[in-house]
Amino acid sequence: MKLNELRDNPGARKSRMRVGRGTSSGKGKTAGRGVKGQTSRSGVAIKGFEGGQMPLHMRLPKRGFNVPNPKKLNAVNLGRLQVAVEAGKLKKGATVSAASLVEAGIIRRELDGVRILAKGALTEKLDFEVAGMSKAAQDAVEKLGGKVNILVAANTDEAPKAKKATKAETAEQPAEDNASDETADEASDETSED
Which of 11, 39, 82, 89 could covalently link to 104 via disulfide, CB atoms 3.0 to 4.6 Å apart? Predict the structure, then answer.
């Protein structure tokens, strides 16, 4: 056996059907596309068309929604932080933030922040300045005497609420001004009657 004599087993490779190569080739003339019409032409991909009836993807019920601008948060477990403390990457009693976790090599990049989850056990006291934390993780941290500061992003709903409050205040002010004008008019009427 020589290298130039190596071959695949019979039937291991099947040559593709060459269409449109004469009527006796098995796929000649119309090349398996039927006769004429839109789908016999090239560049046509009719996806989800069911002959005019309501397509399946439109008949099925829809649930939920997609958040248009979701935040990408790094999920970090308490057990992972404990391993980092024991390895000396995080100092005992240090403040844990996205920047400090990147510096310690626990996460690769900050993204939109860090969310702490309660998987694993934390035995060292740590303070946290993070974008989010589960209730169980927060209880575990506070039980050890650590402080938790949940950072509020700038594009939250608080700004619109503040705007609504200012609009409500401006709406109330003209009403108060009208009331003071009415009392002034009444007083002037009384003095004119006298």
Answer: 89
